[in-house]
Amino acid sequence: MQAGNDIAAMGTAERARTDAGIDPRYYQEGERWEKSVYRSVAASRGVWRTVAVLLAAALIAMVGLLWATLPLRTFDVVVLEVDRTTGYVEASRPLREAGNLTQNEAVTRANIVRFLRARETYDPKSLRDNFDLASLYSTGKAADDLANTFSGANPNNPVKLYGADTIVSVAVKSIIFLNEQTAAVRFSTTRTSRGASTETRHWVANVRFRYTSEPMRNDWRFDNPLGFQVTEYRRDQETVITGESQ
């Protein structure tokens, strides 16, 4: 037992002599190395966290951009109307609050149709009313042309051509806006006379128009509340005359 204690005491003394012989800078260098390794690992983790956050943000941004740029796939039903006589094809458009056919455009279309029907319709019973309405919607060259058409000195005056036994009705087919103040109108006129065959003609008219805020009589304002005016009107025949028995 005493021998064992002596051996242990000798080992402790030997380690003490060994530790006393080691340079203290060895431990300092080891401590600095450990701290540098720790700092390197911590910095590396911070960099990877930053990279991960940036990649996640970029991925979210790409998904959002993709969602915003790719339109949803929808299917709209479009009605195509084909003119049996001319073969002209037109797509019918719905009236939407912010869609294809705006409310302002719809109002202008309605005004053009009212003018054209009053201008081209011939009915002895409503001749004066149609002429007054067409005059209300006309100004400038269009008004002069209308006055010359129904002038007593004009040999082609509709009153002289058709008389009291003929009616010419108008059917508007389509309206296409060429610009903000010009429209192309496709329409047909059907002449019906007593004791004669029905005659149908197809036309294309160019209508230049504007809206004016000039003062207007109240009774005129009832028929033309927005001050719609046609400045130029010209029609050309689209196809040859077609006749069909009454």
Helix amount, in percent?
40-55%
Task: Name the CATH superfamily classification of the largest domain.
Answer: VirB8 protein
- Please trace the helix and strand order, writing H or E for each element: HHEEHHHHEEEHEE
Give the class from helix and strand content and strand pairing: alpha+beta
The low-confidence runs, each spanning 5 or more residues with pLDDT under 50, are 242-246
Number of strands: 7
Beta content comes to: 15-25%
| CATH architecture label of the largest domain | Roll
Query: Biggest sheet, in brief?
Result: 5 strands, antiparallel
Distance between the termini: 145 Å
Mean pLDDT: 80
**Quick one: CATH class of the largest domain?**
Alpha Beta
Number of domains: 2
User: What is the global morphology?
Assistant: rod-shaped
CATH fold label of the largest domain: Nuclear Transport Factor 2, Chain: A
Number of helices: 7
Radius of gyration: 46 Å
Describe it.
InterPro entries: NTF2-like_dom_sf, VirB8, VirB8/PtlE. The C terminus is likely disordered. This protein folds into two domains: 66 residues; 166 residues, Roll (Nuclear Transport Factor 2, Chain: A), CATH 3.10.450.230. The strands form two sheets. Strands 3, 4, 5, 6 and 7 form a five-stranded antiparallel β-sheet that branches. The chain has a two-stranded antiparallel sheet with strand order 1-2. It is rod-shaped, with a radius of gyration of 46 Å. α3 packs across α4. It is of the alpha+beta class.
Lay out the secondary structure:
Blueprint: H1 2-20, H2 24-69, E1 79-82, E2 89-92, H3 103-120, H4 127-136, H5 141-149, H6 158-162, E3 166-179, E4 182-193, E5 198-211, H7 218-223, E6 228-237, E7 242-244
Antiparallel strand pairs: 1-2, 3-4, 4-5, 5-6, 5-7
GO biological process, one term: protein secretion by the type IV secretion system
Pfam families: VirB8
InterPro entries: NTF2-like_dom_sf, VirB8, VirB8/PtlE
